[in-house]
Amino acid sequence: MEHQDTIAQEQWQSFREEDIFRELKTSAKGLSQDEAKNRIAFYGENKLPESKKVSLLQIILHQLLNPLIFILVAAAVASVAIGEGKDAIFIFLVIFINSALGTYQEFNAEKSASSLQKLMKIKARVRRDSKETELPSEQLVPGDVVLLESGMKVPADMRLLEVSELEVDESFLTGESIAAKKQVAILKESLGVAERTNMAFAGATVMKGRGVGIVVCTGIDTQVGKISQDVTESVSAKPPLVQRMEKFIKQISIFIIALSIILGIVLRMQGMDFTAIFFFVVALSVSAIPEGLPVALTVALSIATTRMAKRNVIVRKLTSVESLGSCTVIASDKTGTLTVNEQTAKIIQLPNNSQYTIEGQGYNGEGKVIDSQGKSIEVSENDAIAKIARIAVFANEGSLTKENEKWFYHGDAMDVALLGMSYKLGIDPEKWLTEEKPIGKIPYESERKFSASFCNENNSIFINMKGAVETILDFCTSVCLNGQIKEIDKNKILGDAEHLAKGGYRVLAFASGECKSYQKKEIYENDAIPALTFYGLVGFIDPLRHEAKISVEQCRGAGIKVIMITGDHPETAGTIARELGIADESTQVVTGQMFAQAGAYDSPAFEKLVASTAVFARVSPTQKLEIVDVLIRRGEFVAVTGDGVNDAPALKRANIGVAMGSGTDVAKEVGSMIVVDDNFSSIVAGVEEGRFAFDNVRKVIYLLIATGAGLIILILLSVLAGLPLPLLAVQLLWLNLVTNGIQDVALAFEGGEQGAMKRPPRKPSEKIFNTLMINQTIVSGATMGFITFGLWYYLNTYTQMDETYARNLILLLMVLMQNFHVFNARSERVSAFKVPLKKNIILAFGVLAAQGIHIISMQIPFMQNILRIEPVTYKEWLYVVALAIPMILVMEVFKYLRRKKT
Ligand code: ADP
Ligand code: MG
C-alpha cells in the first residue's frame, strides 16, 4: 500500500470493478479482519479532525466581560484609594471565585456537548471475511465493502458496485438540493463531484434505496475531509435560557447603574460626601444584579439533562429542555414506540380459508407451525405454505442466523419475523439464499409499502412480493386456490385482512408472478411488475408496551393529547389505540385516503379531519408532516416521534422532534431529542422532567431576585430615612454570592413536585416573569426589606449600639431570612412544610452550609476583619431568628390566599 498519497487522487469513477478490487487488494467478500487491522494502522482512523473547541481562555474572558465585574473592579480600586486594602483583596477574591465557578460551568457545558456528539456517532454495515457486521464508521479502511440503506449516512467515500433505487443527498458538497440518483456504470475521468454518479461521498445521506460500495478514501482524504478545514465550526453549547438570562442581567445592570448615578447626583446635591455616594452606588448595583443566576441556571439545566438521560431521553437541542413542559400534543408512531417492535409471525391464512398457527415468540426460529387439527406441518407437505415461505425468504432484506445456540438478527422487524417463520417451517433461509441468489431487488420504503425480489426459477424469472394488503392486491389478477390459479375476489381477501387486523394483527399479503421479459434495473417502475397471483396472508403480533398505557393515562391528566400516526392498517391501528386508551369505541380512524379526498392540507375539510380523531392510519410521510403542520397552526405545541428518513420533515416541523434511538441517522440528526429505548413512556417521562426543569428554573430565579429586591428596599428606605448605609459593599457581596450562592445552586437540585403532571401544559408564550413571579417577588422582597429596615431603624434610633455591631446583626438577619426563604422557593403552590426535605437533601446541607459558613466567619479573625463581623450572643441570635420567621409566615399566607383564589 505504497500509494496512500495517490489513492485520494485516483479517478475511481472510471475504473472497472476488477481494477478497483486489484488496486485496493480486496474482493466482493470484503477484507479479512486482519488485513483491516493492518490497514487502519497504515491509513489511520476514518474520522475528521475534531472541530475547534472554545478555548479555556475564551471562556475566562467571557466570564470577565461582565458589568458586575466592572463595578467590582471599580469598587476595589476605590477601596485601595481610601486605604481599605483588605476590602480590595476580598473583592478580588470574589471576582476570582465567581469567574472560576462560571468558567467551570461553561467548560462543563462544552464537554457535555461533545459527549452528545459521541452518541451521534454513526455505524456502518461492513462485509468482512464474507460476513456482514456493524462497525463504528471510524474503523473503515480503503477496500472495505460497505452496505448502504435509506436513512444512513455515507461513512466514507466509496465507489458503488450495486445500487437499487439509491438516492443520496449530497447537497453539502454539491449545493444540489434534490437527492442525486446513483448508478454503477463506468464514467469518464476528470468529472466534478456532482457528476460522479457511481460514487457516494462521506457525510452524504441516503434518502432512498440500497447500495453496496467499496471504500476508496477515508478520513481527511475524503471529499468532505478536503473541505473540512473550512467547515469545522464550534457551536455554542449554552442553553438559550441561560443566554436570555445573561442578556437580562446585562440589561438590569445597565439600568441599575444608570439609576444609581442619578440617585448619586441627587444625594451629592443634598450634600452627601463623595466616597459615601460611591459606596452607596456600588452597594445598590451589587444587590440588584443577580450575579449567581447564570451559574445556578446552568446547574439547573444540566441537572435536568442528566435526569432526562437517566430516563432514556437525550436532549440534542437545549431549547427542548425548557419547551418540553409546554407540549400539548404528542403525535406518536405505533410500531416500536407504543409497541415493543418485536414482530412475530403468528398466523398464516390461505385464500381457501385454512388457517395455520405459528408458535413461539421473538426473533428466533423456535416453535412449530400447526394446522387447525393441531398437527404440526412442514413445507415439504404443503405446496401453498411452501410458496408463501419462498416469498417470505426471497422478498426479504433481513438476516436471522443461529450461532452457538444464540440467535443473531439484523434488518427490518417484519423481515426478521418472516425468517423466523421459515425456520419454524423447517427451512434454512441462509442456504436457500446462497443457492438461489435473487437477481434483482425492490427494497422496502414506507411510501411504497412492499418489497420484492426477482429470482431465476426453472429458466424463467419470477417476482416474489410481500407488503400491505391493498398495495399487493393492486398488482394481483389471480389467486391460488387449492393449488389452482383462479379468478381473484379482492373483496373477500380484503375482508380476511380486515378481520385479522381487527384482532390487532399487522397483516402482510404474499404474491408472486412470472416476468415475461426481464431486464435488470437500478430502479423498477411499477410497469416492470407483471400481473401477480395472490397466495395468502400472514398476521404478525407486536406486543404492546404495557407502560405505554399508563403513560397515555398520565398524559390525559397532564392535559396532553396523545395521537397515533401510523402507516399500518386502520383496523390494526384502531384496535391497538383502543387497547392503549388513545381511542375509545366511538373514535373513528382517519386514513390517508380520507385526507387525499379532503383536498389540500390547508383546506377546512382537512383540518376538520385532523381535529376529529386521535388515530391516523395508512398515512404517508407527507401526510404526517401535513397533520403536524395543521396541529401547530391550530395553536398546539406538538412533539412528534419518528425514525425513518421520511419522518425527517415532520420532525423538523414539530415543536419538539423526538427521534428514536434505533432510528436512522437522518432522524437523529434533525430531532431535538433522542429517546434511547424508543419507548413512548420515556417521551412522557421527558415531558415530566421538562416541567420539573422549568419549575426549578423559576425557583432559582425567584430566590435570587427576591433577595435582591429585599436588599434594594432596605438600602433605599435607609437612605430616605437619613440613616447610614445598612450594609457595606463587601457584606452585600457576601450575601449575594456566598451565602445565597450556595443555597441557590442547592435549590437547583430540587426534585420534581408531585402535581407537575396533573396540571395543564404551560403556554409556550408564558414568560418566566409572569404575574405570579412579580407578585411573589414583591411580597417576599418587601417582607425582607421592611423587617431588616425596621431593625436597622430601631438600632440606630432607640439604642446606643455601635454602627458596625448593628450591621453585624443586620447581616445575620439577612442570612437567616435567605435561609428561610429557600424553603418558600421550593414550591410556588404548596406550603413550605409540605415539601418533603428528603426530596432535596443537598438543599438541607446547602442551608446549613450557608448559615454555618456565616457563623464560623463570625469567629475567625481574618473574616471578622474583612466582613466587619463578630460573634453575637446566643440570645441575640434567637432574637434575630424570631425576626426572620415572618419570612415564612407571610409567604405561607400568600400561597394560601392564592390557592383559595384558584
Ligand atoms: P408504522 O407506522 O406502523 O411504522 P410502516 O410505515 O412501517 O408503519 O408500515 C406500513 C405498512 O407497510 C405496514 O402495515 C405493512 O403492511 C407494510 N410493511 C411494513 N414493513 C414492511 C416490510 N418490511 N416489507 C413489506 N411490507 C412492509
Ligand atoms: Mg415503521
Automatic annotation (TrEMBL):
<comment type="similarity">
    <text>Belongs to the cation transport ATPase (P-type) (TC 3.A.3) family. Type IIA subfamily.</text>
</comment>
<dbReference type="Pfam" id="PF00690">
    <property type="entry name" value="Cation_ATPase_N"/>
</dbReference>
<keyword id="KW-0472">Membrane</keyword>
<feature type="transmembrane region" description="Helical">
    <location>
        <begin position="59"/>
        <end position="82"/>
    </location>
</feature>
<keyword id="KW-0067">ATP-binding</keyword>
<dbReference type="GO" id="GO:0005886">
    <property type="term" value="C:plasma membrane"/>
</dbReference>
<feature type="transmembrane region" description="Helical">
    <location>
        <begin position="276"/>
        <end position="301"/>
    </location>
</feature>
<dbReference type="InterPro" id="IPR023214">
    <property type="entry name" value="HAD_sf"/>
</dbReference>
<feature type="transmembrane region" description="Helical">
    <location>
        <begin position="877"/>
        <end position="897"/>
    </location>
</feature>
<feature type="transmembrane region" description="Helical">
    <location>
        <begin position="769"/>
        <end position="793"/>
    </location>
</feature>
<keyword id="KW-1278">Translocase</keyword>
<dbReference type="InterPro" id="IPR008250">
    <property type="entry name" value="ATPase_P-typ_transduc_dom_A_sf"/>
</dbReference>
<dbReference type="Pfam" id="PF00122">
    <property type="entry name" value="E1-E2_ATPase"/>
</dbReference>
<dbReference type="GO" id="GO:1990573">
    <property type="term" value="P:potassium ion import across plasma membrane"/>
</dbReference>
<keyword id="KW-1133">Transmembrane helix</keyword>
<feature type="transmembrane region" description="Helical">
    <location>
        <begin position="700"/>
        <end position="721"/>
    </location>
</feature>
<dbReference type="Pfam" id="PF08282">
    <property type="entry name" value="Hydrolase_3"/>
</dbReference>
<dbReference type="InterPro" id="IPR001757">
    <property type="entry name" value="P_typ_ATPase"/>
</dbReference>
<dbReference type="GO" id="GO:0005524">
    <property type="term" value="F:ATP binding"/>
</dbReference>
<keyword id="KW-0547">Nucleotide-binding</keyword>
<dbReference type="Pfam" id="PF13246">
    <property type="entry name" value="Cation_ATPase"/>
</dbReference>
<dbReference type="InterPro" id="IPR006068">
    <property type="entry name" value="ATPase_P-typ_cation-transptr_C"/>
</dbReference>
<feature type="transmembrane region" description="Helical">
    <location>
        <begin position="805"/>
        <end position="825"/>
    </location>
</feature>
<dbReference type="InterPro" id="IPR036412">
    <property type="entry name" value="HAD-like_sf"/>
</dbReference>
<feature type="transmembrane region" description="Helical">
    <location>
        <begin position="837"/>
        <end position="857"/>
    </location>
</feature>
<dbReference type="InterPro" id="IPR023298">
    <property type="entry name" value="ATPase_P-typ_TM_dom_sf"/>
</dbReference>
<keyword id="KW-0812">Transmembrane</keyword>
<feature type="transmembrane region" description="Helical">
    <location>
        <begin position="88"/>
        <end position="107"/>
    </location>
</feature>
<dbReference type="GO" id="GO:1902600">
    <property type="term" value="P:proton transmembrane transport"/>
</dbReference>
<dbReference type="Pfam" id="PF00689">
    <property type="entry name" value="Cation_ATPase_C"/>
</dbReference>
<feature type="transmembrane region" description="Helical">
    <location>
        <begin position="252"/>
        <end position="270"/>
    </location>
</feature>
<dbReference type="InterPro" id="IPR044492">
    <property type="entry name" value="P_typ_ATPase_HD_dom"/>
</dbReference>
<dbReference type="InterPro" id="IPR050510">
    <property type="entry name" value="Cation_transp_ATPase_P-type"/>
</dbReference>
<dbReference type="GO" id="GO:0030007">
    <property type="term" value="P:intracellular potassium ion homeostasis"/>
</dbReference>
<dbReference type="GO" id="GO:0016887">
    <property type="term" value="F:ATP hydrolysis activity"/>
</dbReference>
<protein>
    <submittedName>
        <fullName>HAD family hydrolase</fullName>
    </submittedName>
</protein>
<dbReference type="GO" id="GO:0006883">
    <property type="term" value="P:intracellular sodium ion homeostasis"/>
</dbReference>
<dbReference type="InterPro" id="IPR023299">
    <property type="entry name" value="ATPase_P-typ_cyto_dom_N"/>
</dbReference>
<dbReference type="InterPro" id="IPR004014">
    <property type="entry name" value="ATPase_P-typ_cation-transptr_N"/>
</dbReference>
<feature type="domain" description="Cation-transporting P-type ATPase N-terminal">
    <location>
        <begin position="11"/>
        <end position="84"/>
    </location>
</feature>
<dbReference type="InterPro" id="IPR059000">
    <property type="entry name" value="ATPase_P-type_domA"/>
</dbReference>
<dbReference type="InterPro" id="IPR018303">
    <property type="entry name" value="ATPase_P-typ_P_site"/>
</dbReference>
